[in-house]
Amino acid sequence: MMGRDSTDLTLEMLNEEVRMIWDANAPFWASYMGAEGNSFHRLLVAPSAERLLALQAGEEVLELACGGGLFVKQMARLGARVVATDFSSVFLELARERVAEFEDQVQFVQVDATHEEEIVALGEQRFDAAVCNMGIMDMAEIDPLMRGLAQVLKPGGRFVFTIMHPCFNSSHVTMGVETRDESGEIITERFLKKTKYLYMEPEKGTGIVGQPLPQYYFHRPLHKLLGSAFRVGFTMDGIEEPAFGGIEEPKARVHWPDFHEFPPVLAVRLRLRQ
Ligand SMILES: C[S@@+](CC[C@H](N)C(=O)[O-])C[C@H]1O[C@@H](n2cnc3c(N)ncnc32)[C@H](O)[C@@H]1O
């Protein structure tokens, strides 16, 4: 902690609380996700991340915030060598169990992505690629992550992240359905009402209904999110905004699979300049 000022200390305390919450939620999350993940993971996150990463067998890839290891397993199946990291020791243990059959290809390391030095300790210019699925909005700070990645990726290396879409999927969003009669035709439309975007303090919310503790969300508007990467030498050369497909009949309560016009997930590929 030497050399850290009071802002750093406050952040560090917040970060510790974030970790404690994830340790507490990890078993519930891993069991809810099951063997293949929930619809968000299966239909939106994993396909976009896999396409943008475009892994080649034998490549070495770093995963940050790997959670219960769903994507670790997917990358190992593709023949990648994976260094899987998370700051939650509980999640790491669950992930280790999930990918036991790939133990020759996967190494687990406890890394707090808000600590640049822990990322750099993995090895400078070591990785062909890095990935972080649905984790960045859960991190108290992202500048250390971007700085760390700029050092551990090979020149030209790529970093793919998926995140709750900051424009559509955050707190201060209300989902609704309205039905009207337009000259005899009954029109039903879903809408989102968003009341905050540029300025939002860290807030707690529920990722999965029934989880033991509410988790923190650290909303960042796009210029802050991407600005942090651009400052350390990344450029953006891939983007997807995956959304759910089919339209179901409106229900009393709407949720994300009811929306096909708004992407709840943003998937980005950044590339380190050569
Ligand atoms: C919503 S879960 C996503 C897990 C997994 N990537 C997935 O897609 O299923 C968020 C993850 O971020 C991790 N996380 C949050 N802050 C972190 C930090 N500072 N360093 C490392 N991991 C962090 C949590 O432990 C948790 O595993």
TrEMBL record:
InterPro entries: Methyltransf_11, SAM-dependent_MTases_sf. Keywords: Methyltransferase, Transferase. Residues 62-161 form the Methyltransferase type domain. The keyword tRNA processing does not apply. GO terms for molecular function: S-adenosylmethionine-dependent methyltransferase activity. Pfam families: Methyltransf_11. One of its GO terms (biological process) is methylation. The keyword Cell cycle does not apply. PANTHER family: TRANS-ACONITATE 2-METHYLTRANSFERASE (PTHR43861:SF1), TRANS-ACONITATE 2-METHYLTRANSFERASE-RELATED (PTHR43861). This is Methyltransferase type 11. It comes from Ktedonobacter racemifer DSM 44963. The lineage of its organism: Bacteria, Bacillati, Chloroflexota, Ktedonobacteria, Ktedonobacterales.
